[in-house]
């Protein structure tokens, strides 16, 4: 079974959105952490695991899910959340530790996909 043209466009948009989101977050993450890397510094303290190159995997899986299906990830979760349709503003707020985030800012980069 081949995806329709609309499904292919959805997949491509999600892969590009995921990559661009992470590129933007990575740029902000490294602010204040150089020239000597200090994980505690910067606007996003702590550790960050990005998923460059994994976008097709998340999109391919999520293309077969229903809105009721839940996706969870223990590592490098951003691309999976984006492919599942998470609100990007709420996800960014979560990463920055804001109370307007998906889990009230408590999860940070380990976002909770069950609170979409």
Characterise this structure.
- The protein is built from four helices and no strands.
- The protein has helices at about 5-30, 55-60, 80-85, 90-95.
- Mean pLDDT is about 85; it is low at about 110-115.
- It has about 120 residues and is mainly α.
- Helix 1 packs antiparallel against helix 3 (about 80-85) and helix 2 (about 55-60) runs parallel beside helix 3.
- It has one domain.
**Secondary structure category:** mainly alpha
Strand runs, count: 0
Q: Averaged pLDDT, please?
A: 87
Instruction: State the separation between the terminal residues, measured CA to CA.
Output: 30 Å
Number of helices: 4
Briefly say what this structure is.
The protein has 4 helices and no strands. It has helices at 5-29, 55-62, 78-84, 88-95.
Note the main attributes of this structure.
116 residues, mainly alpha, 41% helix
Secondary structure elements and pairings:
Elements: H1 5-29, H2 55-62, H3 78-84, H4 88-95
Helix pairs in contact: 1-2, 1-3, 2-3
């Amino acid at each position: 079974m081949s995806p329709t043209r609309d499904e292919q466009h959805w997949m491509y948009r999600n892969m590009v959105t995921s990559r661009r989101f992470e590129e933007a977050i990575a740029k902000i993450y490294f602010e204040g952490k150089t020239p000597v890397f200090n994980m505690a510094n910067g606007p996003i303290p702590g550790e960050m695991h990005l998923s460059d190159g994994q976008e097709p995997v998340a999109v391919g899986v999520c293309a077969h899910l229903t809105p009721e299906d839940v996706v969870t990830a223990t590592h490098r979760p951003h691309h999976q959340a984006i492919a599942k349709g998470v609100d990007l503003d709420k996800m960014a707020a979560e990463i920055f530790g804001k109370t307007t985030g998906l889990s009230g800012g408590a999860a940070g980069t380990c976002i909770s996909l069950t609170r979409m």
